Amino acid sequence: MPSYFENFPKIYYDAVGKGDYKLVTNLLRRVQIKEGLSETAALFDLYDIGGEDTPESVSEQFYGDQRYYWIILLFNKVKDRFYDWPLPQAQFEQYVNDKYNTPNGIHHYEVAQSSGSTSSFDDSHMIEVNSTVSGATSVSNYEYELRVQNKKARIKLIKPEFLELITQEFKTLIGG
User: Fold this and answer.
1) Separation CA 129–CA 58 (nearest Å)
2) C-alpha torsion 139→142→148→149, nearest 10
């Protein structure tokens, strides 16, 4: 498996505008997963990122090769691995303390929705409301940020048997 950027086409580019063209990798080429494909449960397994996991370490653990990290990022729509990937615990604590003067202060109030799904593993059944709504409970800044981290930590991993198909399709799309 060649590296991720080896799949990108090359173009001649004059960065300064003085007629000095150089052959460079076209980093502006993009592909995305087809609509609905990431919801096809038969293609993936759910995985909860833990502790110090990186896209490379998850790829190594799940696929036996860290070079497939880009498939994990692409399939989970991670565009910025530093902001879209969950932080290690120490960095998370620092982030919350830097962002909020009072991490345990109230971020918002919420109630469980009364129709449809009334429970969930990720609190998606909760509705943000004013503090005056009957039965509203407070969510601290820390709790809110922890929920955001937990949502980022649940990712989908393409099953290994589909890896070659995905990489071939990527090569076709990115090079075309």
Assistant:
1) 37
2) -150
- Give the pLDDT band (50/70/90) at residue 75: confident
* Cβ–Cβ < 8 Å for 13, 25: no
Range of the domain at 136: 89-150
Within a domain: 104: yes
Q: Full-prediction pTM beyond 0.85?
A: no
Per-residue b/e over 89-115, b at no fewer than 16 CB within 10 Å?
Answer: eeebeeebeeebeebeeebbbbeeeee
Reference 29, options 56, 45, 5; nearest CA is 5
Count of domains observed in the chain: 1
Q: Is residue 24 part of a domain?
A: no
Residue 53 lies in a domain: no
Q: How high is the mean pLDDT of the chain?
A: 85
